């Protein structure tokens, strides 16, 4: 079942097309990461799906419903750039917003949710005393308190400290393991790479590319790096033969002390390399295959990010 | 909707402006009711509803709209401006938000009028239900108009400006109909609650109907709005 189905969705502000005819699907159980520069249209897109702004044209359905009001009690949303009722305490904030959603949480549920996001000690604190990071966590808490089937997170880790960002990433992973489908936006490549099962790259209001991390890397034909630790004593003649072989077969390679670093196109190249080294009577201590990061892929190719 | 109306209701009672207005309303009601009681003692029985509730009714008619706009002009515009509305709209329908706010504001004014009338009734030794109905319907109209202006405005300052203009224009136009015979002004009087306040309470459903129409327009405008 498609949890999110979007057909030709567009949004214009005046003459400016911010989102330009996006069509996409998100399947149940996925963590879909929407990636793009600031101003690429990510937030506008997520804001249309969550009812914050109205589309100029196109349609979409959430959890099989095209009337979003019907599923608001089954989704959770962390909007970007939101304010809080500063006079409320964290506890009251969660209770108030849950009630609006038609869910009346017990004291235990509220406390457990605050504990999940690491705010258990701040439950009686007024939101005016909260830091930006704490408000972000509270925003996540209000989004997950009713255990939604679908969770929208707009830049969940932006502006938070490293420790909090790690906690949030772990929480997203945990929620997904519990069966929740997550749609998140980010401009942080590492974040998306770490947790998302599917990635959409947005550029100028359109989806430039979409797929799993591996698919995207394959699409952009990015190379892998094999790092081979060899014995310290390689005679000059053997070294020349190896270099000649690598020059002919792989072109890009380098030696760092007793490590041979070779750019390969696919995993099948590794046995070829190892066989060659064994033939030259080289001792192999270890072999590491290093995949390029998403950032390396897109920076190298100058795609979208 | 109930959670929003309760929140709105409680928040109104927490504001200093609201307390000052309720005290003013109650003070005027009590003052005029006491004067009426003194006249009754000196000049015989004038124990009619109009005498005791004149202070409350006059305050509501002359200042009611202004009071409602001062307290509730920004109920939507400010929340949209500072983006607390973003949390609300992804939890419930926009219709529920506007209706919840309308209910909260109306309940606040019903309570305020009730407090004033209970105090007046202590002096008059009777409760004036007709006045309660008239004032409540009038203020419901005010609440719906405030919501309309708030859903049309992008900022709190904008809704305050237009709210004050409307709260002055509405009674001004209504009173102008007494002296000016122009056709369009005569028509306008049927769209404001002032004309019906002077008639029997049988006409109050018309004010309710007008208020519901204004509320429906507010909902439609708010539903089309980007936040």
TrEMBL record, chain A:
PROSITE patterns noted in UniProt: ABC_TRANSPORTER_1, ABC_TRANSPORTER_2
GO terms for MF: ATP binding; ATP hydrolysis activity
Ranges where the ABC transporter domain occurs: 4-229
InterPro entries to which the protein is assigned, alphabetical: AAA+_ATPase, ABC_transporter-like_ATP-bd, ABC_transporter-like_CS, ABC_transporter_ATP-binding, DrrA1/2-like_C, P-loop_NTPase
Alphabetical UniProt keywords: ATP-binding, Nucleotide-binding, Transport
Pfam families, sorted: ABC_tran (PF00005), DrrA1-3_C (PF13732)
SMART domains hit by this protein: AAA (SM00382)
Family stated for the protein in its record: Belongs to the ABC transporter superfamily.
Stated name of the protein: ATP-binding cassette domain-containing protein
TrEMBL record, chain B:
Alphabetically ordered keywords of this record: Membrane, Transmembrane, Transmembrane helix
GO terms under cellular component: plasma membrane
Transmembrane segments: 12-36, 56-76, 97-121, 127-148, 160-180, 200-222
Pfam families: ABC2_membrane_2
Coiled coil (UniProt feature): none
Gene Ontology MF annotations: ABC-type transporter activity
Record's protein name: ABC transporter permease subunit
Species whose genome carries this gene: Halobacillus litoralis
